[in-house]
Write a structure and sequence with these properties.
The protein is of the alpha/beta class. The protein has one domain: CBS-domain (Roll). Helix content is 28%, strand content 16%. It has 8 helices and 8 strands, in the order ββαββαααββααββαα. It is globular.
């Protein structure tokens, strides 16, 4: 290869797709460091959506991007909330259409915007990055079971600035693929040893 010249270019064949991280089944273990299972926003830029975007358009955006959670920004690009695919596909849109704002007229799903059903920043619950650094995947699994959600935010407050930074995210789906077992299936486990036993004998194996 020429050591100083321009790199060769090529045309794009067919229909290209975006690269996505693949988590081979069984590559994550419960005693691994929790950071090994966290999406670190210092290395991967989080995906955002404007709060004025219609929810069904946002769902299509999620599908194409291969994600189930988006951070929501306001008109000034300030972080104002988050929204998940479960929010859009669940009961929140129905409750919105039954809200007081819709009592005097007929509301349609097409009118519902992300900001109408998002979880605002003030309602977030998050894990502290300093604690996560010392935790294991087993701690994260236990937390998912305790809170009953599919995503866990991780925040950091650097001493030099004092400003709260959303540092990362745990995804239950990502974790389940890596462990090779659903978190729901692990709900019967009462101890770390029971979870390990469940992993050694996944439900449905040999059926």
């Amino acid at each position: 290869m020429n050591t100083t010249g321009a790199l060769p270019r090529l045309s794009i064949p067919g229909d290209p797709v975006l690269a996505r991280p693949v988590v081979p089944t069984g590559t994550i273990k419960l005693d691994d460091l929790a950071l090994n299972a966290m999406t670190d926003f210092m290395q991967a830029t989080p995906i955002t959506v404007n709060g004025d975007t219609p929810i069904d358009e946002t769902l299509q955006y999620m599908i194409h991007a291969g994600v189930r959670l988006l951070f929501v920004t306001g008109r000034d690009s300030r972080l104002i909330g988050l929204i998940t695919s479960n929010d859009i596909q669940g009961e929140k849109p129905i409750r919105r259409m039954q809200a007081i704002e819709c009592m005097d007229r007929t509301c349609s799903r097409r009118e519902i915007l992300v900001r109408d059903i998002m979880t605002p920043v003030a309602s977030w619950e998050a894990l502290d990055y300093g604690v996560v650094r010392r935790a294991t995947v087993a701690h994260v699994v236990a937390t998912f079971k305790a809170v009953g959600r599919r995503h866990l935010l991780v925040v950091e407050r650097p001493a030099q600035s004092g400003q709260c930074i959303v540092r990362g995210l745990f995804s239950a789906s990502w974790l389940e693929r890596g462990l090779g077992l659903s978190i729901d299936a692990m709900c019967v486990a009462s101890s770390f040893a029971d979870i390990e036993k469940a992993l050694a004998h996944p439900h449905g194996e040999g059926d």
